[in-house]
Amino acid sequence: MSAATTITAPGVGSRRRRKRFPDGPGFQKLLRFCEKAKSDYGCVYVWSDTCCIDKTSSAELEEAIRSMFRWYRNAEVCIVYLAESYTMEDFDSEPWFTRGWTLQELLAPLVVRFYNKDWEPLCPHWLKSSNDKQNTEMQDAIERVTRIPRKELEQFRPGCGRVYEKMVWASKRQTTRVEDIAYSLIGIFDVSMPIAYGEGMWAFYRLTEVIAQRSSDRGFFAWSGSPS
User: What is the reported pLDDT for 223?
Assistant: First the structure.
């Protein structure tokens, strides 16, 4: 059971309207995210995948999945909260680097800021104009746990080239729903395909089919075997 905070707002006449807000860890994370976006970067609007997608609407969910990479790429800054890390030395046990959807959160944005468990900047000598994706110490730490080269962290371009390499990056990551193994890679490969939850692993087969139709990469079939 989650706790909630009750606030009051003026209503018509003498009546007052009561509204309840959640007060669990997820809501506190959202609040801190909004605070950082406003105080550190002067953002007027923010977007969070955990609460800004109406998952009860299949049309909105499909639009979000198809557009998410572009939204991250066009963002002023992407704020990443690492809930299990105090320093970069903790990255080996940080769940954020093992989730399927966070691969595009890492690669798509041009500017990324990493915050630790206490919402403090992870990079030393922090400045508001800094970009963690260009910090050599951060690049080394991320490459160590993800095997993604520094060049790709800094200047990733989506597309159907180097299929084997991108599949290796994704192979150690997990998703709650099996279909998201494929859907989380749509932006990485810059392809389009219908979203159909309930199709199971068929989603991944469809993804490889779409990639094969667009790719001229001779190493396309170089990866095989059981999932990592």
Answer: 57
